[in-house]
Amino acid sequence: MRFNYIKLPTKDRNFIELPLIPVAFKKEGGCFCLIDSGADYSYLDANIGEALGLDVKSGKIFRSKGITGREFTAYFHKINFIVGVWNFEGNFGFSYELGTPFGILGRDDFFTLFKITFKHPKKIIDIVPFEEN
Predict the structure, then answer these.
(1) What φ, ψ does residue 122 adopt, rounded to 5°?
(2) Residue 68: its pLDDT value, please?
(3) Where does the pLDDT of residue 126 fall: very low under 50, low under 70, confident under 90, or very high at 90 and above?
(4) How far apart are CA 26 and CA 41, in angstroms?
(5) The pLDDT value given to residue 101
(6) Which of 49, 89, 92, 100 is deepest in the core (most CB within 10 A)?
(7) Bridge partner residues of 83 (DSSP)
(8) What CA–CA distance (Å, rounded) separates 74 from 125?
(9) What ranges in 1-133 are assigned the alpha helix state H?
(10) Among candidates 11, 72, 82, 14, which has minimal Cα distance to 52?
(11) Domain spans in the chain, listed from the N-terminal domain onward
(12) In b/e form, how buried is each residue of 90-103, taking b as 16+ CB within 10 angstroms?
């Protein structure tokens, strides 16, 4: 499945194009998530976890650091998520301190499920589950 990068405004009235894709959840709703090869794990805002009916703080607690070095706490839960037409189950860390307007899709439980090809000059991402390769 092919996705185009999403253009977001920056503080200086310019734009940045990022490899953001829509991710849906079995119960309802969804959000955009950044495909981040530098992230060990996948993260979502804790409010999404609450909307999914999770007791967020009952998850496995984990202290993580982003690229800025700022630490945050995440609570991991296994959830169903949908990318394109594919339905998977994976571990996501839910955090009240994530600090991004989008989720993060990291190597564990995202890159392990999909072959991901970045075509950065064209601002395109191709994603195919490994079982379809």
Answers:
(1) -95, -5
(2) 64
(3) very high
(4) 20
(5) 83
(6) 92
(7) 86
(8) 27
(9) 46-51
(10) 82
(11) 2-132
(12) bbbbbbbebeeebb
